[in-house]
Design goal:
This protein is α/β, with parallel strands linked by helices. 42% of the residues lie in helices and 10% in strands. The chain has 16 helices and eight strands. An eight-stranded parallel β-sheet has the order 1-8-7-6-5-4-3-2. Helix 9 links the parallel strand 4 and strand 5. Helix 4 (48-60) runs parallel beside helix 6 (89-107) and helix 4 (48-60) runs parallel beside helix 13. The mean pLDDT is 95.
């Protein structure tokens, strides 16, 4: 399948839907390529075949953008982690760019160079020092063939704005997503004010990623949009939520849940949950719709399938998937054949299979 490889901003300005990719870090941890704790991305150098394969799965599922596997790849984070002693941040950044570009070109997707929050910000709030870390990563990305930048997974709007200011000096489009709840960032800044802060810093695309489920994230992005409208500012909206249900909607998200990080599977979104999410996000005016931790390739395929009319095509992965369970029409069991319809899956209330487990938990931050 050949895609239209126009600039991300040009496509969003034209009203197109952009499907993002899914979660790399959590998925690669489950596959044995990332060490839980500091979650650093040295696998881009040590196990490039694993990173390449995951990129390829997201591309096949319909992703228009592949993000570089560079989460937590600032020098201070790598040093703090202790996981990486003989590989530099520059080597990881460059390898990650090469892998994303190699796979993106197989389907004419875009490549986003990604930076994320730094330990330095929490330790000293030194703007010059924090910005120097972002500039170093940006310079490494600019040696490679990336299409635009994403500053993602920031708990503080101030640090995200510093990242945006640095990345905008590249002359490329910049997206910025915060891992915040409807309550606001960790300084108590409401989502609407966070969005204003980011757009004034130069962000072309703003939104949220990770930490909370689609319901909470859509609510947060709506609040961001309200803030921008009130301030008379323009910015495209982006959403890449957690692939788990978090009805607790707490301030710090899933990292405060007792199941984090090794027992989250019981909260995983179904593909039908993702159909609902994609439609609600689109109806809210969000046009960059993807996923973060917990979003697997079949979740990205569900976004692509739900928005197939708006996009005008289905992804290659849909060749092996009947829409709304249509493939079940050939099943030998009549009760399974009866499930080959949209109404069944839209109205299903799935059981957990764990009779002694609660439906919700008490987060550690409450």
């Amino acid at each position: 399948m050949k895609r239209n490889k126009r600039d991300i901003l040009e496509r969003l300005n034209a009203g197109e839907v952009i499907v993002g990719d899914g979660g790399m870090v959590l998925q690669l941890e489950r596959r044995g390529y990332v060490k839980a704790g500091h979650w650093t991305p040295e696998a881009a150098v040590q196990n490039p075949e694993a990173v390449r394969q995951l990129h390829r799965e997201f591309l096949r599922a319909g992703a228009d953008v592949l993000q570089t596997f560079t989460f937590y790849c600032s020098d201070d984070k790598l040093e703090l982690s202790g996981n990486v002693t003989n590989i530099t941040g520059a080597q990881i950044n460059e390898a990650a760019c090469d892998l994303a570009r190699e796979v993106a070109d197989e389907g004419n997707a875009l490549v986003a160079g990604c930076v994320s929050q730094t330990p330095c910000y929490l330790s000293n709030r030194n703007e010059t020092e924090v910005k120097s870390l972002f500039k170093k990563q940006m310079d490494e990305f600019l040696k490679k063939d990336i299409d635009f930048f994403i500053a993602e997974f920031f708990r503080y709007a101030e640090e995200a704005a510093w990242a945006v200011q640095v990345l905008k000096t590249s002359g490329k489009t910049v997206g910025a997503t915060l891992c915040i709840s409807p309550h606001g960032d960790m300084n108590g800044l409401p989502p609407g004010e966070c969005a204003v802060h980011l757009v004034k810093a130069g962000a072309d695309i703003v939104g949220v990623n990770c930490h909370l489920d689609p319901t909470a994230c859509i609510q947060t992005v709506k609040l961001m949009k309200e803030g921008l409208d009130k301030a008379g500012l323009k910015g495209h909206l982006m959403i890449q939520p957690l692939g788990c249900q978090t009805p607790e909607c707490n301030l710090t998200g899933y990292i405060s849940l007792p199941e984090y990080p090794f027992a989250l599977e019981c909260r995983t979104l179904t593909r039908w949950d993702v159909h609902k999410y994609a439609r609600e996000a689109y109806d809210a005016g969000i046009r960059y719709i993807g996923g973060c931790c917990g979003f697997e390739a079949y979740h990205i395929r569900a976004i692509s399938e739900e928005l197939r009319a708006e996009r005008g095509f289905l992804p290659p992965a849909s060749e092996k998937h009947g829409l709304w369970g249509a493939g079940l029409e050939l099943h030998t069991k009549p009760w399974v054949r009866a499930r080959a319809q949209r109404e069944y899956w839209e109205n299903l209330l799935p059981a957990s299979g764990r009779p002694k487990c609660p439906s919700m938990a008490t987060p550690a931050d409450e």
